[in-house]
Every structure is written in structure tokens, then in C-alpha cells.
Design brief:
Radius of gyration: 20 Å
Strand content: under 5%
Number of helices: 4
Structural class: mainly alpha
Shape: elongated
Distance between the termini: 51 Å
Number of strands: 0
Amino acid sequence: MKKRLALGVILFLSIAMNVTLLSIIMGRSTRQHELVVKLVMRQLAALPEDQRVKAEAIVDLAKPSLRRQMLEIKQKRKEVAGYLASKNYQRDEAEKRFFELRAKNSAVQTVAQTLILDIADQLTPEQRAMVIPHQEETLP
């Protein structure tokens, strides 16, 4: 009986640690979108005022959608993690929930990429090189 209880505790802890790790990994892609917006906003200060104002207006239009979508992703990650740890776990349902999470991540990525393109449309090649992050790991 004690061995069975110990095995159950070990199994539970293992699942809990995996769910925690999975949540951290899934959260990184969301924070990456936030990082791109912050980097772009920081770089906008170097633009001439008229172009900076236009670019900031573009960012301001996208912010509410990005915030809403980020909150939805955070909530969906919690739901997925909770489901994976639940007694009712079924692989088909878990796959469906992961699919929904991927769709939300894709939607926020589209908004972030559109934001970058909308700003890039307003800039000269030299200004784009200064404002738009070119490192592969920071692009959404």
C-alpha cells in the first residue's frame, strides 16, 4: 500500500513538473511578441517627429488587440495545463486544447507582424534598419 501511495505521489509530482515546464515554454512565445513591441517602441524615439508620431499611432492602434490576445493566450495556457493535470485527461481533448492554443498564438503573431509591416511602410530603408529588429530570435 505504501509503495502504491509513493508511486502515485511521484507520478503526480512528475506530471506537475512537466505541466509547469510546458507552461514556461509556451509562455516564451507570448513574451517574445511583447519584446518586439517594446524594442520597436524604444527605437521609435530616434525617428524624426512626424514619422515617430505616425509610427506611435500605429502601435497605439494595435496595443488593445495585442493585450487582449495576450490575456487570452495566458488564460488558455492555464486551461491546458489544468486539463493535462486533471483526472479527466483524454489525449483527443488535450490535442484539441493545444490546437486552440496554437491558433491564439498564431493570431497574436499575425497582429505583431502586421504592426511591424505597417511601421516599416512609413519609413525609409535607413530608418527601417534602425527601428525594425533584425535579429531572427526577436521577430514574431
